Amino acid sequence: MIDFKRPDGQAVRGSLAEADGALGAVVVIQEWWGLNDQIRGVADRLAAAGFTALVPDLYRGKSTVEAEEAHHLMTGLNFGDAASQDVRGAVQFLKSRKAGSGKVGVTGFCMGGALTVLAATQVPEADAAVVWYGLPPLEYVDAARIKAPLMAHWATQDQAFAIASVDALEARLKEAGVRYEGHRYLAHHAFANEEAQGPRRIPITQYDAFWAGQAWDRTLRFFGQHLT
After folding, report:
1. Across the beta sheet with 24-29, what order do the strands follow?
2. 56 forms bridges with which residues in the sheet?
3. Chain centre distance of CA 166
4. Are 111 and 188 within 8 A, CB to CB?
5. What distance in Å separates the CA atoms of residue 18 and residue 36, rounded to the nearest whole number?
6. Would you write out the chain's pLDDT as a tens digit for each of its 228 residues?
7. 8 A C-beta contact, residue 111 and residue 31
């Protein structure tokens, strides 16, 4: 765990996964469960691929395995503040370390996917972003402010984020001329979360190793293209 500063000067903790001979860096945004071992594993995966990764602790030390508590924690989070302050501060921190190319991307899952969309509009320092099955209400998405290339992974059977809402977001991105690459998978919500199976699974989620592998391959190629 390390500390970094938000643009407003407040200190935030985060989990840092260092990459040997880093190519670049990525800010990883948690699901609604909090900063847990699964999201640390995502950071470790990026580090193994050559990208130093930082997961900001958006819940300030809290995490859970219970869906009801996760919902409570998520609804208590100020998404605009998290994107413009916590995530932006994490990007600025990684930029200051000048790992590899010095470029920094953002990626997030579920709640973190929605925050990644917001960060694309509010973090001008970000060099690329990858969204995993999550988006905010469209009225909060000023697509004209998105300057970095954007990739997204969507699940066509997602009961948390309906594919119709994805259609509306993609239409807005196209109208604004965003450099966007979207992929759809015949999968359920959280298809890339290894814990969305067995006793830890909740009804709307289902891990799918095949589609997760495809999405990860695309993500790493995308970051390799834009962050190195």
Report:
1. 2-5, 11-17, 51-56, 24-29, 104-109, 128-132, 150-155, 180-185
2. 14
3. 16
4. no
5. 17
6. 999 999 999 999 999 999 998 999 999 999 988 999 999 999 999 999 999 999 999 999 898 888 889 888 889 999 999 999 999 999 999 999 988 889 999 999 999 999 999 999 999 999 999 999 999 999 999 999 999 999 999 999 999 999 999 999 999 999 999 999 999 999 999 999 999 987 768 899 999 999 999 999 999 999 999 999
7. yes
